[in-house]
Amino acid sequence: MVPEDLHVKETLADNVLCISLTIGKHYLIIRTIAFRIRNSSVVFGHIIFQYCRMENTMFDRIGEENIKMLVDRFYDLVFDHEQIAHLFKSDKDEIKEKQRLFLTQFFGGPAVYSERFGHPRLRARHMPHSITEDDAVAWLSCMAKAIGTLPIEESLKDELFKRFVPTAMFMVNTGEET
Length: 178
Description:
Elements: E1 6-13, E2 16-23, E3 26-36, E4 42-53, H1 58-62, H2 64-80, H3 92-106, H4 112-117, H5 122-126, H6 133-148, H7 154-170
Helix pairs in contact: 2-3, 2-6, 6-7
């Protein structure tokens, strides 16, 4: 008998097959590298099983509606920020949607970003843009302001902001111009 709340999703990106099984708060990810060989046969390499029980994730504590609000408020600030607005050249709605999907996953919610776009590969996806430490600080400033507007507890706001600092600094790929 298959449980009613069983959800199965599979994606194949960059030759990595990812199967996600969710039953209530239980989450199992099965990943394997797929290699194509003769006659369209597929051989799978190492299989990695990852299990977690999702309880009180950041996603659960913030809530989907607050993530959407955070993304909207954050990008309102970013798109008008003199220093970093130029880094965001593509469609604004698309940028917001990708960020919403990423943050949903980043905070422990469903792997919706990976299902649509493959592994986040944050640093690789940001490499085409020249990002300085000052840009990262400006980005964090916009994020801090956006977080400050959320209707959540101050301790959760602090915890939320701390999650962004190492990630923002990891995106720095250019030294300061002289």
